[in-house]
Amino acid sequence: MEAKLSHDSSLTEPLILDEKQNGLAPKLEEVESNFDYSNTANVSFFKTCFNGLNALSGVGILSVPYALSLGGWLSLILIFVIAIAAFYSGLLMQRCMDVDSDIRTYPDIGNRAFGYNGRLLVSVFMYVELYLVATGFLILEGDNLSYLFPNTGIEIAGIRIEGKQIFVIIVALVILPSVWLDSLSLLSYISASGVLASIIILGSILWTGEFDGIGFHQEGTLINWSGIPTAVSLYAFCYCAHPVFPTLYTSMKNKRQFSNVLVVCFILCTLSYASMAVFGYLMFGSNVQSQITLNLPT
Q: What sections of the protein cross the membrane (predicted)?
């Protein structure tokens, strides 16, 4: 890969640029011109926000009350620490792509930093993470749908499939067509539905606590040191969208606005995660399950 970095691509440039700051403007214009040949670099600010929110605000929202119950009230500080670290690293990824128009993916950053071995290492970890996250989503869907519709099953060629397994298969078949979409502008509408689903989940929890006789009366514990490692891992799971950030960046019509996209996405998602954790813990205390939806009355 031919180096296109200039020696004055300074570390003194602010990470969040506005339209009046010119430090990286020439490099950004070069990056944008290199994507003019593609029809994919036409996604607006708001559509990118929806894609980013959907990537960040996933099913981790179901597990944050459980994480808080494991670590205690003080562990809530960790979700803000992790959010700040993830946000900062997202800005650094943007900076890498701003100063080198050859960088278009996460493995490209690894290659730029550490050569072929860096690309290989980043690729392996990235694809393993994406595979495990997708697998986790299917398992969570199977758990929740089998809880809502118990004793569901079908028989195919003499083989009986029921319970969680049938719902995992159904969900996989339903979401499979979405992987064939190559337009992030079109995908933003699906992302908007995902964001709406997260809002509905949070609203449902609040409604259940307020009007279904559960209330918000559990006190909980201040700190539980033995549960901190698990709590940290569950909080970190909520911010595992970094592999898609380069794709969101390269798809934008105005790449100068990507840092603002990160600000919007991280603030809104962190507020929703923290709200779900607090209200869920106040509702069920130490009895909250690994997915709060499993605590809800049917």
A: 66-88, 120-140, 165-181, 186-207, 227-249, 261-284
Q: Which residue has the higher pLDDT, 35 or 267?
A: 267
List the Cα angle 143/79/273 in 5-degree steps. Answer: 50
Could you tell me if 67 and 283 are in contact, meaning their C-beta atoms sit under 8 angstroms apart?
A: no
Residue 80's nearest CA partner among 229, 271, 280, 265 is 271
Phi, psi of 160 (to 5 degrees): -90, 120
Does pLDDT of 1 surpass 90? no
Per residue in 247-294, pLDDT (tens digit) is: 899 988 888 899 999 999 999 999 999 999 999 999 998 889 888 888
- Asked if residues 256 and 47 have their Cβ atoms less than 8 Å apart, the reply is no
pTM for this predicted structure: 0.79
CA–CA distance, 231 with 226 (Å, rounded to integer)? 10
Report domain extents, the chain.
Answer: 39-295
The number of residues making up the chain comes to 298
**DSSP-derived pairing of the beta strands 159-162 and 153-156:** antiparallel
| Biggest alpha carbon–alpha carbon distance for the chain | 69
Distance CA 251, CA 22 (A): 22
Give residue 258's pLDDT.
92
Neighbours of 195 (CB within 10 A): 21
Q: What is the mean pLDDT of residues 41-54?
A: 89
Beta strand extents in the chain (DSSP E only): 153-156, 159-162
